[in-house]
Design goal:
Rossmann fold; 6-stranded parallel β-sheet; 3 domains; globular
Length: 599
């Protein structure tokens, strides 16, 4: 074990039950072998995933290759995966079998939260853990998943993580839309309504609204095929504590999740084990997606019953997968289309990275601390990474090519944003940032607009929380009101705990913003006033809340789309009780700044 894993428990079991399983399944059992189990944990984004490491009998000094395994929709490792791991171990493989966060014995709150994005991060961390285990050959990891986990294996293999040599997707979930169409309309409507309710509860900071993962026909559950509930619960070993529940918001994530679209990016040998009469993941789209990968081996098993009745505990037939001896990893060498993420190790950068990975993108991670950037890249399966400093445009410029993309989250942007923007423009790369600083956006337009037109660079600043929602809300209000709308007051409010969720860069921007003027669109022209110069009341969910004047890019873009607007003003009320004190503090800061300037 190393610093990335924690060894917590050691047990050893003989093969009596495994040999019996092999005999029942019609496969030959090894003459004599034992399986040693270790309980390990590995970190993922501040939480820990729990896993069991199955080790076969040692053969000389050689270390066994390792298979990383995880279950399907809402299921845990105690639901039959031991039988698969034991069969692999009998063939000489080690197996690292883990629970996703929010399920089983892994950490993560709230419980029973099913997020494909988070589970893909769990897979990346599990593979990284497997590659660093001292008891196994970490240079030859294989990914194995069933059902929803099979879909994750497809997505993971498509990302081409470091060292992965093969993938096995058993009865894989490949297309959320196809799976949704396989559900009875009554259940679909019920689950959608429950999902909407859970989304609202999440926005309000309340506990999740839970529904059954598998239930009877026409019930409110994610899976409602005739054999779903008995087949699913039949995987639970006697005496195991398991709750057949999941946060209902998963309905929307599952619908959008289509890992089959990524099969064309897979370069390692991949086995698709497809059930012809699958009641959850229809076979036809799965086979169609599998055919898109030249590296795919497809296996179609004709089963007389539906899929959820074929996975009985301790009775699974599983042929041993071949072990590739060399690395079959592919690299994307198209430098003109790659994405560089500057500031990936920061709070906002981490959110952007998670969103990219969840959509199958593989950005180059860039930052000024080589140790931090290297560790972050390794945590996510060996992404490309480089050292670059926002204060040194040359270090950013060398990472960019014409047609590439630079995404930067390094703020405050008035301080750290100009150099990366200039580097992108000179390289002919496209530029995206998460700024909310109007002064920076105005300066960016003034300094870089003409040059960007010459080099073909597209500038897309302020594409984050600040201030896309206000621009969208203002657009909707102006369209609904028509020509009668002459002024827009836009307020930003927080609906949950915020203080400890502010990134360091955001806090610095807020602090610096008190000494900088705020822009308003007033009398059809852009004017500047002292930040927090006045307070405006809003009614939010039936309560009156004060907000103070701030800068917002809303004032730059809304008048361009609606030329009849006389005024656009942006207000902030993240902390309503502090709105009036902030006005006083802003006045004092402004006076102090003027005093220093007059010396």
């Amino acid at each position: 074990m190393n610093e990335h894993t924690e060894h917590t428990e050691h047990t050893e079991r003989t093969t009596a039950q495994t040999a019996q399983t092999a005999k029942a399944s019609g496969t030959a059992a090894p003459s004599a072998f034992s399986v040693t189990e270790h309980e390990v944990h590995f970190p993922v984004q501040g939480d820990r995933c729990a896993a069991t490491l199955y080790l076969p009998d040692p053969v000389g000094d050689a270390k066994p290759p390792v298979v990383v395994m995880a279950h399907g929709l809402g299921a845990i490792r105690a639901m039959g995966l031991a039988a698969h791991a034991e069969r692999f171990s009998a063939a000489g493989y080690a197996c690292l079998v883990f629970d996703y966060r929010h399920f089983g014995t892994s950490e993560g709150t709230p419980r029973h939260l099913l997020s494909p994005r988070k589970q893909l991060a769990d897979w990346a961390a599990a593979l990284f853990c497997a590659r660093n285990l001292s008891q196994v050959d970490g240079d030859r990891p294989v990914a194995w998943g069933t059902s929803f986990g099979g879909g994750h294996v497809i997505s993971t293999a498509a990302r081409r993580p470091a060292g992965l040599v093969a993938a096995i997707a058993q009865c894989p979930f490949t297309d959320g839309i196809a799976s949704a169409l396989a559900v009875h309309p009554v259940s679909s409507v019920k689950a959608t309504l429950a999902g909407a309710r859970d989304m609202v509860r999440g926005w309000l900071g309340r506990s999740p609204h839970l529904i059954a993962t598998a239930g009877p026909e026409y019930s409110t559950a994610l899976v409602t095929a005739p054999d779903a509930e008995p087949g699913y619960l039949g995987l639970v070993l006697p005496g195991r504590d398991f709750r057949n529940e999941v946060a209902a918001r998963a309905v929307f994530d599952i619908l959008r999740y289509r890992p089959g679209l990524r099969t064309a990016r897979i370069t390692v040998p991949t086995l698709f084990a497809v059930c012809e009469t699958d009641s959850v993941a229809p076979a036809e789209p799965t086979l169609r997606h599998a055919a898109r990968s030249a590296a795919t081996r497809r296996a179609l098993r004709h089963l007389p019953r539906r899929r959820l009745r074929t996975s009985r505990r301790r009775s699974t037939r599983l042929p041993a997968a071949p072990c590739p001896r060399g690395r079959c990893r592919g690299k994307d060498t198209n430098m003109t289309s790659r994405i560089v993420l500057l500031g990936a190790s920061g709070y906002t950068g981490g959110l952007v990275l998670d969103a990219m990975l969840g959509r199958g993108l593989e950005p180059v991670l860039a930052g000024r601390n080589p140790t931090t950037v290297s560790a972050l890249a390794a945590q996510h399966g060996g992404l490309d990474h480089a050292v670059a400093d926002a204060d040194d445009p040359a270090t950013v410029r060398k990472l960019l090519r014409p047609g590439g993309v630079l995404v930067t989250t390094v703020g405050p942007f008035e301080r750290y944003g100009h150099s990366p923007a200039r580097a992108a423009v000179e390289a002919g790369a496209h530029y995206i940032d998460s700024t909310g600083e109007v002064g920076f956006v105005r300066a960016l337009r003034d300094r870089c607009h003409d040059r960007a037109r010459e080099t073909g660079s597209v500038l897309l600043p302020a594409f984050g929380y600040d201030y896309v929602p206000g621009i969208l809300a203002g657009t909707l209000a102006a369209r609904q009101g028509g020509d009668a709308v002459r002024a827009l007051d836009i307020g930003y409010f927080a609906t949950g705990p915020l203080l400890h969720g502010l990134s360091q860069g955001t806090r610095a921007t807020m602090r610096d913003g008190l000494t900088l003027p705020s822009a308003r669109w007033n009398q059809r022209r852009l004017v500047e006033e002292r930040t927090a110069a006045h307070v405006h009341p809003f009614t939010v969910r039936g309560r009156r809340k004060n907000a103070f004047l701030v800068s917002g890019t809303d004032v730059l873009f809304l008048p361009e789309g609606f030329p009849l607007l006389d005024a656009v003003t942006v207000y902030n009320s993240w902390f309503p009780a502090l709105s009036r004190p902030t006005t006083v503090l802003s006045a004092l800061a402004d006076t102090a700044a003027r005093h220093r300037a007059g010396r």
